[in-house]
Amino acid sequence: MKVWIDITNAPHVRFFRDIITHLQDEGEDVIITARKFGDIHRLMNLFGFEFTSIGKHGVTLAEKLLESTKRAYKLSKFIAEEKPDVGLSKHSIELPRVTFGLGIPSVYVLDNEHAIAANKLTLPLCDHIIMPEVIDLWDIMKTGADPNRITRYRGTSEIIHFQNFEYNENIFEDLNLKLEREKTILMRPEPSLASYLDADCHESVLTPIVEVLKDYANILIIPRFREQEEIFRGYDNVTIIKPPVDTFSLMKRCDLVIGAGGTMNREAALLGTPVISCYPGKPLSVDRFYIENGLMYRSTDVDEIVNMALRLLVSRKGMKEIKTDDLFRIIIDSVYEAADSGPKK
Question: InterPro entries, from UniProt (predicted)?
Answer without folding.
Answer: DUF354
